[in-house]
Amino acid sequence: MKNAGSYYLIVLGLMLCAAGGVFTWLMWRSFERASGQRDWEEVPCVILESRIAERRIGPEVPRDFGWQVLFGYEFGGERHTSGLHSVRGRAWSHARAKAEALVERFPAGSAQVCFVNPADPGVAVLKRDSKGPGYSLWFPLLIVVGGLGMIAGAGRAIVAAARLPRPAAANSSEDVGGEAFEPGAD
């Protein structure tokens, strides 16, 4: 196939556009969620429970440590409890020190500030999500632009190849300078 390389670049460009588009959408969704949390109301809360949790997935896998929290707060005249550090939750880690630091930062019985979703007062967090993904949208968008550039370049190459004159067949006679030319004849 004459333009196989160009078609390959078009497929590669489409895959880059798709991957960049998916990551752009995921990052935008995360940014939107974090921006929406800026409207959540700040209310006082009390840490009811703060402890280190352990788990082991398999006998050959090191132990993981996590932080579990439960806090109480009042919103709209009603009492609620939540166990969310953030909407994303808290990741498990092989480092016990990370969980210990959170237990020290949020000890049981301490007064803290939490953020309550006014649309669903049963959802509250101790830490709002970062809006950082919104400030990094340029990177997956750059991948999309690169994919579009590959598609455009390959498309131009295909169009240019289609416009080139086609060479005459090898075993036909051509009129050269008014004389008939036969290939292979002397």
Major sheet size, sense and barrel closure: 5 strands, antiparallel
Listing every helix as H and every strand as E from the N terminus to the C terminus, the arrangement reads HEEEHEEHHEE
Question: Whole-number average pLDDT?
Answer: 87
Major sheet strand order: 3-2-1-4-5
Uncertain parts: none
How much strand content do the residues show? 15-25%
Radius of gyration: 32 Å
Tell me what the structure shows:
The protein is an alpha+beta fold. It folds into two domains: 1-38 and 130-164; 40-127, no CATH class. The protein contains four helices and seven strands, in the order αβββαββααββ. It has helices at residues 4-37, 96-105, 132-135, 138-163; strands at 41-55, 64-75, 78-82, 111-116, 124-125, 174-176, 179-181. The strands form two sheets. The chain has a five-stranded antiparallel β-sheet with strand order 3-2-1-4-5. It has a two-stranded antiparallel ribbon with strand order 6-7. Strand 4 and strand 5 (124-125) form a beta hairpin. The protein is elongated.
